Amino acid sequence: MIYKRSSALFAEAEKVIPGGVNSPVRAFKGVGGTPIFVKEAKGAYLYDEDGNRLIDYINSWGPMILGHAHEPVVNAVIEKAKKGTSFGMPTEIETQIAELAVSMVPNIDKIRFVNSGTEACMSAVRLARGFTGKDKIIKFAGCYHGHSDSFLIQAGSGASTFGTPNSPGVTAGTAQDTLMANYNDIESVKALVEANENEVACIIIEPVAGNMGCIPPKEGFLKALRDLCDAHSILLIFDEVMTGFRLAKGGAQELFNIKADIVCFGKVIGGGLPVGAFAARNEIMNYLAPLGPVYQAGTLSGNPLAMAAGLSMLTELNNQSEIFTSLAEKTAYLHKGIAKVLDDNKIVHTINRVGSMISVHFDGAEVVDFKTAANGNNDTFKAFFHGLLNAGVYIAPSAFETWFITEALSYDDLDFTIAAVDTVAKTL
Ligand code: PLP
């Protein structure tokens, strides 16, 4: 494939945008080469500025669960835009989408809309701290909750139980309040809770990890977290920015039948517009301003275009819940097909999958946490990525990302992809 125009556009972008991109993973640093500039997209396909067609397995990192430029969503946005794009005043549609979300998701009474997943997680943690009167939080290595300071933390050294900043600009003071546990390792969480008795406000987790590839929670792990939280008056926050309205109507809470205290949303809930949200039972949500003392706000929060896109998307998912089964079936088909051709070509690999989230790791061992995810062969991944790209299949430009399956993908698209993996596997 030719990427002449994408390369030229990237060179222009680099002059005025740091690294040429508005979010780092887009720069292809993990795989090398030049980022592809998208011209338009429809259904399962991206069309780039050089006229190449790519089958898209990223789908804007999750939101486009029904495919690109999905007509009901696009029409809802167009109709809303004609009536004004932002008021900073209440609108009826905010209540409509809130009512729908609350009816779809278990264990929530109220929901507050924000503009991104980052804002949702940041606000959820502030609310948890305000509600419990405690400062520390526990997160898991390899889980991503957006780029707010409290989450840009890595495990501390030696015997310390608190984290250290993993980006300049995050203060050591902030890092001290974030404790790092290992995914799927309940003992690591218990040790932190015991060492910080009466200090931990919340445990935040991706109930299916999607930011170190796709990693399912081990049987009993989420339940053990729930029990631990109950025993120590700690709030359990499910970051369902990826899993919400994707794994089931009610997200991971419904899929695993585990109750979270606060749930964070993003991606699908906005139908491709900038939306995030966090939700909980009344007792917790009533702690938020203007009802309660915990401050949280946003000029564009509940923006009418964003609410129109989200309402259209959630309405379709609510009315046609067979979509979740169909998505899971397509993903299982892809899994089986890719595993077979990789096996046939003797490529060592592990594939993880939950619902419509899937990832391919180039390592033979089980991938259960950040450490095992990092064992994957990155050189193989790079060659795999570029081989697929050349064949017209676009997967995430990083070995630590999940592929998102969209309902717009046909079985022909999946067969095309499996054949492309076969061709690429012969070159690895
Ligand atoms: N939480 C999870 C699980 C995510 O995957 C992401 C983004 O990928 C975020 C939070 C942050 O969302 P946003 O990029 O909308 O700020």
Chain-wise SSE layout:
Layout: H1 4-16, E1 38-42, E2 45-48, E3 53-56, H2 71-81, H3 92-104, E4 110-114, H4 117-132, E5 136-140, E6 153-154, E7 164-165, H5 172-176, E8 178-181, H6 186-195, E9 200-205, H7 221-231, E10 235-239, H8 251-256, E11 262-265, E12 276-280, H9 282-285, H10 304-319, H11 322-344, E13 350-354, E14 357-361, H12 370-374, H13 378-391, E15 393-394, E16 403-404, H14 411-425
Parallel strand pairs: 3-15, 5-8, 5-9, 9-10, 10-11
Antiparallel strand pairs: 1-2, 2-3, 4-12, 6-7, 11-12, 13-14, 14-16
The site of pyridoxal-5'-phosphate has 16 residues, from helix 4.
Subunit structure: Homodimer.
Main location: cytoplasm
Subcellular location: Cytoplasm
Q: Could you characterize the architecture of this molecule?
A:
The protein has two domains: 4-69 and 321-425, Aspartate Aminotransferase, domain 1 (Alpha-Beta Complex); 71-319, 3-Layer(aba) Sandwich (Aspartate Aminotransferase, domain 2). Helices cover 38% and strands 15% of the residues. It has helices at residues 4-16, 71-81, 92-104, 117-132, 172-176, 186-195, 221-231, 251-256, 282-285, 304-319, 322-344, 370-374, 378-391, 411-425, and strands at residues 38-42, 45-48, 53-56, 110-114, 136-140, 153-154, 164-165, 178-181, 200-205, 235-239, 262-265, 276-280, 350-354, 357-361, 393-394, 403-404. The strands form four sheets. A seven-stranded mixed β-sheet has the order 4-12-11-10-9-5-8, with helices on both faces. A hairpin with a 2-residue loop joins strand 1 (38-42) and strand 2. Helix 2 (71-81) packs antiparallel against helix 10 (304-319) and helix 13 crosses helix 14. It starts with a helix and ends with a helix. The structure holds pyridoxal-5'-phosphate. Residues 61, 116-118, 121, 144-146, 206, 210-211, 239, 241-242, 266, 276 line the site of pyridoxal-5'-phosphate. Pyridoxal-5'-phosphate is lined by residues 61, 116-118, 121, 144-146, 206, 210-211, 239, 241-242, 266, 276.
